[in-house]
Every structure is written in structure tokens, then in C-alpha cells.
Amino acid sequence: MTTAPFVRPEQQQEANHLGIWLFLATEAMMFGALFFALTVVRLRVPEGVRVASGHLDKLLGTVNTGVLLTSSLLVALAVSAARRGRQERTAGLLAGGAGLGVIFLAIKAYEYQKEFSEGLMPGPGFRLHDHPGAELFFNLYYAATGLHAVHLTIGVLLMLGLSARVLGGYLRLPERAESVELPGLYWHTVDIVWVFLYPTLYLVSG
Amino acid sequence: MTVYTPDANTPAARPRTYIEAGYTLRSWLLTTDHKRIAILYMISITGFFFLGALGAAAVRLELLTPKLDLLHADGYNRAFTLHGVVMVWFFLIPSIPTVFGNFLIPLMIGARDLAFPRLNLLSWYIYVLGGLFTAYVLVAGGVETGWTLYTPLSTKYAPGHTVMAAAAIFVVGFSSILTGLNFIVTIHTLRAPGMTWFRLPIFVWSHYATSVILVLATPVLAMALILLALERALGIGVFDPDLGGDPLLWQHLFWFYSHPAVYIMVLPSMGVVTELVTTFAKKRVFGYEFVAFASIAIAIIGFLVWGHHMFVAGQSMYASMVFSFLSFLVAVPSAIKVYNWTATLYKGQLDLRAPLFYAMGFIGLFVFGGLTGLILASLALDVHAHGTAFVVAHFHYIMVGGAVSAYLGALHCWWPKMTGRMYSEFWGRISALLIFFGFNITFFPQYILGWLGMPRRYHSYPPEFQSWEVLSTAGAVMLGVGYLLPLVYLLWSLRYGPRAPANPWGASGLEWRVPSPPPKHNFEEIPVVSWEAYDYPPPQEEQG
Amino acid sequence: MTSWLPFWPASASAYADRIDLLVWAFSALIVSLAAPVVVGMVWFAAKYYRGSPADRSHAPTRGFWVEADWTVIPFLLAMVFFVWAAHLYYVERTPPGGALEVAVVAKQWMWKFQHPGGQREINELHVPTGQPVKLTMTSQDVIHSLFLPELRLKMDVLPDRYTTIWFQADRPGTYALRCTQFCGTDHALMGGRFIVQEPRDYEAWLRSSAVDGTLAQEGERLFRRLGCSGCHGANASVHAPDLAGIYGTQQPLSDGTFALADDRYIRDSILMPKRQVVAGYEPIMPSFAGKVSEEEILRLIAYVKSLPREGNRQP
Lengths: 206, 544, 315
Prior knowledge:
The complex is a heterotrimer. Chain A has a single domain, classed as Cytochrome c oxidase, subunit III, four-helix bundle (Four Helix Bundle (Hemerythrin (Met), subunit A), Up-down Bundle), CATH 1.20.120. Helix content of chain A is 78%, strand content 0%. Chain A has 6 helices and no strands. Chain A is elongated. Chain B is mostly helical. Chain B has one domain: Up-down Bundle (Cytochrome C Oxidase, Chain A). Chain B is built from 16 helices and no strands. Chain B has helices at 25-29, 34-62, 73-92, 95-109, 117-139, 153-157, 162-189, 202-234, 247-281, 288-301, 317-345, 354-377, 379-385, 389-419, 425-452, 466-496. In chain C, 35% of the residues lie in helices and 20% in strands. Chain C contains 7 helices and 12 strands. Chain C has helices at residues 14-47, 64-93, 199-208, 215-225, 229-232, 263-271, 294-306; strands at residues 100-107, 110-114, 120-122, 124-128, 133-139, 144-148, 153-157, 163-167, 173-179, 191-197, 250-252, 258-260. In chain C, helix 4 (215-225) packs across helix 7 (294-306). The longest helix of chain C is centred in the first third of the chain and has 34 residues, at 14-47. The radius of gyration of chain C is 27 Å and the shape is elongated. At the B-C interface, helix 3, helix 6, helix 9, helix 11 and helix 12 of B face helix 1, helix 2, strand 7 and strand 9 of C.
């Protein structure tokens, strides 16, 4: 299926692919800048960062990493199913990936709540004042994971919407498999960002 | 090889133009036609240009006298902040790409539109939204940090609506990113059959290089602005040494974007100048491959020089030396272009019309301004010149003497194509001359003042500097008249100008093979290209 | 130079002369690189306008060797200036030993200077000729920049860190002193006079200025008043590092690394003592953040610097 101004379907496909990759490059540059800031802070106040990072729940962080990686697996399987024209299977896998994304967000919310009760939220209740840089670390932790969560939420809505359209027959597979593949790339990117965030934030103290 | 003759207009055979394809406001505001979107951008950009010019007018009027007597100190600070923010983000960065890139790239490559037409319209809406928001913030209460927003002044000490301004600039960044993305995909995938990369006009190469920068650099600014807003609103501490942060981190993040940004501003102008020179000299650009690769080289090396804004900021001496060397290197591809343009004029058939005046003005002002950039790239010299009017002069030579001249040159060259009307050549040349001389009178004194020790962003100065400042303001008045004139005669031509033929200049390029103005779908049939770019006959043959 | 249309700033030092020579030479190169373009365009416009009878045979559209020439040769010539300027920058960033040390604190919107003998100035800086002078600078608030145009020097002044600048002024006179990093409302008013004097006149000025004590003496007074001597003093019961002669030495830290005890180290020890703890000591020193001003910190540093080295301390 070709829409103007494209003349040949391969042209349009190439354009869609290139478009998504360029968009993902912008995400990489934006999060890259954030990682740069995190690195500078780590180098400036290593002690404070180490102590603060030690108060993050490594278990929950690791579980969440597993959850997100599994969700990416499901999305990758969905793309494969889409290419083989398996309508229901694709919808199910997409919903599964989205579901794991929701579980990630739930675990994250639980972590935030735990941090609040432990006095690790920025503000007057913050209890690691003795360690210069600890509060800054936590501020960046909330900013970074918050920004990631926003991206993930958008991804969840995308995947759910896609799943519904596939299930309802609005997206015929395998002809429109590209419409599953390209958003799938976005999902993987959000996952990769987390794969970098996890060690940067959680694994400082080794 | 084709002979290009300016052709006569044949109204009877004229197909319905893109302008005639719908007269309702809705048909314009919901268009996906790249040509209409270009016009929408042209109107909004013109508005922002004059808003930014008001900021400059306030500054130049204040600087007529050594003491602060027109505005109060905060008002002056808001004026130059407004001038910088509006001119950088709402004029210089978008102007040529969104007006001429949008209009011409599909035509030049033989396509019917950009790859993602609806994304293009979205890009314009984001621009307008961000622009109106910014204009409101800057005017109602103001921002007093300079367009560079240095911390901790911007995060802890400056009054004003800094967070809102950061949010507004963040929004408009998406407009940039979408435009760049659209151009890259279009140039890769929608070239007509036979239109190989090395048959593309240099205008397209330049916009490709620009788009790479737009896509890769703008997100870094987005993150920097998020951190700035969080710091100012919530005190997160990333730029605050008391909390373990570093104010220099802002400078690194900001300049990592803002230096490539100046290449976003100048690369499209260089593309325009190549088209102007070839069109009005009737000659292939000298060293096509060198010029094409130079555009790419500028984009790449331009990402590696940001530290030259920080030679006296507390950056390490050795890092500064590396940045200085790379800054010398980035001048090389620009120099190649300048010499190649000049060589293109050699033995050409020079049609001395307004667009060529603008192109030659660009080349002269750019080469001079660019070389003073090398003075700033030289470490020990920058120690003296940094933060003074010398820097102001340097970048205005490039941005105003260069980019704005190129914008106006493009406006005149493609006005017939875009509007179907010819402008008054007499007034066109008058404006170009007024602008060239007005510009030099405004900004050359700033080099002298800067070296004398006049800092930037000052509203007061020692009385002995006054003669230069008065001269500068006088030049600015002349410049202002030069900018207002086209507004008048170009608008006048829309109603009273002679109708334009498809190819009034006898130029090569696919855009000249369609009627003026083009029909909505651009080409009756997608052309099959079997000739090189700029395949003019030898200039000798034109004689006699 | 005419006073109503100045063209060039005065030069107050030999270094400034070297900068001027560099910029003139570079300008000559710039003119020689730009002139062919400007002259060429004007000439071509006059000779090759459309329809003119000029000879246009063999109009070139490419030329690898001419391109290579006009790329490589200007670049190599420019490299001469890169090296020249980098060398002067290196000189300007490397203060010699034995310089007269002046402490500088910038704040919105004034400059505060303190000479080693304790003399204080606001918005004015007196220095003697013929001697290297080193300024150690910090800001109380935003980033400022100290600009001395007749020396062709400037350096940004940041909060929470020290930046330094050094010079040797050679020509007595009254020159400009300005802030060149936009710092808010009265940025344009943040300046004053830079007064270079013959050593005799400088001494006279020093003697005539009211002084509470030298910088180091004031630091010693603070050291007692703030309670530092309670732990770091000779008869303290608390186990705290002895500060005698530590300035400029490598301090072993509790994490196994070493830190150079320079101005920044001392400042950080006062404000963030837990950041770098000396090996063998507990992190029990309280922070004095909010209890000392930047000027007071500089006096404390001067005091610590002045403590003589004792017997078996290694450099």
C-alpha cells in the first residue's frame, strides 16, 4: 500500500524505517545528555552517589530489568508473528509486552513509595544530608526514571492500541507487519535506555 | 546538455496553481502541501524577525548614550535576551530550511511532496505554538538571562520567567527535529529516477547536512532545558556546587547543542548562495564534489568544537588547546566553499540582479566574519576578545551579513517561482545595497569597540566609546530601512508585479521546469533525470 | 590616538604587546586570505557581466590541484597562528613562583580585593610594576569574569571554586577593570579602576591603607574564633590532622588515594569535610558551610599557607 507522495511501496517502507531510526537517534541523544550529566555528578561527588545508590532497592531494580527485557522479547516475538500473518498471536504478544510494561511501572511506583517512607524523597524529609551529593543523586534518579517512565507509558499505550487494532482486524497481517515492527523498535529503545539506567543508578556500590 | 532560455508566460495553458487549489482559511491551515506550509512559515518567520528586531532597536537606541537613560537596567537585559532568543530560535534556525527547504526540496529532487507531509504541518503548528508562548513570556515580564541562560544566574538568581522560556524553547525544538527528520528521509527516498546524489543541487546537500545536525543536536538542548527547569523550579542541584553539581555542566550541555546550531543557521545559507551564484553566473559551481563534501564536513566537525566558547570559563588548558585546533579545522571546508563560489563567478555570464548582489554580499561578509572567527579560535586572542563586542561583531557578520542576506537573496530568487510575480529589480538592488552598507556601518565598529574592551551585554560605557556606538546605531537605522523595503515592494508585487514565467532567470534545476507558481502536485509527470546538476552550456557560447 | 575616536586600547604589559603583535600579524593573514575573494568578486562583476565582450573560453568548473592549494596553504599558514596563540595561552596560564598573591571575591555587583598585607579594596585594584601578580578568585553567587583589557586578560570567576590569573604589569597608569560575564541587573556597572604603580608608589599606597592585619594574621584570628584550634591546635585533645606545612603537599586519604592540599582542598575541607578524609582520622569534623564567607575562607587559607613545615613531613 502506497500513499502519496510515494510511488512505490518499497520507497515508502524505506522512508518509514529511516524515519523511525532517526527518531530513535534523537532519543539516544537526549538520554545521552542525561547520562553525561549523571557521569559528571558521579565523578564530582563519588561518595555521596555511592551512599545514595546503596539505598536503592537492588532486588526490585533487577526484577524490573528482567521484566522489561522479557517484555522486549514478547514484542520481538510479536513482530515475528506479524510477519507470519498470525493475527491473534501478534495481538496477544503485544498485549503481553504492554502488560509487563505496566508491571514495571507498578514496581517502580512501589519503589517510589518505599523511598518516600524511608526519607529518600527530595524535600525537608530527606535524611541523607550528611553525604554531599546524595540528595542530588536522588533528584537525578527521580528525574531520569520519571522521564523513562513517561516514555514507557507512551509505549504501553502504543502497544495496547496496536494490539486492539490487530485483534479487531483493522491491521491486516502480514501486509501491515511494518506497523507492528516500527513501534516495536520504539519499545526496544525504551528498554535499552533502562538497560543503561539500571547499572548507572543501581549498581554504583557494586 | 540543455540550453535554458527564459521563457514567455503562456496564461492560456497555465494549470491551476497550488495557490488556487483552495481559497478558504481551512484549506491553508489544514494543508499538507509543502509549498503552502512554506508560505505559512514565511509569514510567521517574518513576524518573529521583526519582533527580534524590536529588541535590537531597543538595545541600539539605549547605546546611543554612554549612560543608562532610555530603559532601566532590567529592561535592557530583557531586551537583549528577547533579541537573542527570538532571532536564534525563531528566525535563524528555521528560516531558510522551513521556507525554502520546504518549498524547494521536493521540486529540486523531482518529488511531489516531502516524505511525511502531515508531520510537516505538525512541525509548523509546534513552531507557532512555541513561538507564541515564547513571545508572550519574553514580552510579559521577560527573561533576564541572555539567550545563553548560564547557571547559576538562570537557576538561582535571575528574576523573570526563565522556566517558562525554557519550556517554550523546548517545545519549538520539536519543530526543528521533525523538519530535519522529514528532509533526511525525503532526500534518501524520494529522488526522481536518475537523480543520483551527485546530480543533486548543492542546496539539497546543504539541507541534508543541516538536517543531520537538527536531528542529533536538538535533543541535547531538550535535556539541558529539562535539567535547567528542574533546577530552577525544584532546586535539584545538578548545576549547584553546594549540592554536588557544577555550573559548567550547563555550559557544556548548552554549547554542545548551540555550536552545531550555528551551522544549522549557516549551512542552508551556503546552499542558497551556491544556487544564487550558479543561477546568476550561468555556470556550474566550481568543484561540485568538494562543495558537497564540505557541507558534510562542516556538520561533522561542527560537533567537536563546542569548548571554544569556554576558553576562559575554567576549562582545562589542554582541552582548550584541542578545541582550538578543531575550530581551526572547521574553518577549512567553509573556506573551500568561499573560494569555489568566487571561482564560479570567473568567466561566467554574470546577471547583476538583486539575488546576485545578496550572494556577493554574503560571500564578502561571510569570509571576513568567518576569518575573525579564527581570531576567536586562537586561544590567547580569545582571552582578550571573549565576552566583548568583538564576539558580537563576529557572529553578526555570519548571521546577519551571512544568513539573513542569504535568506533575502533566496526570497528574491524564488519569489517568482513561489508567487508567480516578478519583483521590482530597481528596489531589489537598492535594498541589497542599503543592507550591505548599513550592515557594515553597524557592525564593523563593534570589532573595534570589542578590542578596546567594551563588554557584551552592557548598557553603559566609557564616554570615549560613544562615537563608535553612535555610528553603529546609525548603521542600524540604515539596515532597518533596508529590511523594511522588501516588505513593501514584495507585497506590492503580489498585486501589481508582472506575471512570472516558469524560468525567469534561465536557470537549471527541476524547480524551474514547472510553472510559476507550481501546480499542487508539482510535476505532471515525475521527470527522469539524465543530466548533471548545473549543466549550463559553456559561458562563451552565450555571447554574440 | 584621538580620544574621541579611540582605535586601540593602551598596553600595560609586555605580554599585552605580544598579544597585539599576534593580532596584527593574524589580521594581515586574514586580509591576504579575504582580499582575493573580495577583489575577485568585484573584478569579475566588472569584467564578466552578462553580454560583456570578455573572453570566457575554457571556463573552469573543477580543478583538484588548485582546490588542494587554496585549502592546504591557508590552513598551514593559519596553523602558525594556532601554535603562536596556544603558546601565549600556555604562558598566560602558568604563573611563575613568587608572585604577589591577591585574593579576589566577586559578588553581584562588585569586586573585592585583598592584598597579602591585609589591605582591602572594592572595585579598585592597585598593583606594582615589575613583579608577577597572581589573583586567586572566587564568586559568592553567579559566574562573573574579571577583565583587564589593557593587559589583554580575563578569567571567569565561579562560585565554589577558585580560578587564577597572573600577570606582570609594566607601565604605570590607571586602566579599566570590568566584569564580562553577564551576571544580572548591574552587570554593566560592575567595574572600576585597575591602578598600576611604580613599586615605591605602591608601597606608599599599601602603608596608607587601613589594615586590621595581614591576610594570614586575620586568618589566624578566625582560626581561633571559629574553634578550629580546638581540634587542630597543638594542645587539642581531639585527634585531628596537624595543619603545619601541609599546603602544597600530597595528603593521603582514607580511601587510599592522595589529594594535593591546595586552595580548593582547604576550602572543601572547611565546607564539606566528609568529602575527603585524611587517612587514619575519623570523619568527625563539622562543616562550616554558612558560617564563613568567601573572604574569610581566603584568609584561613592564607593562614594555613603561612604555617611552617615541621621536621619529618614529606613534601
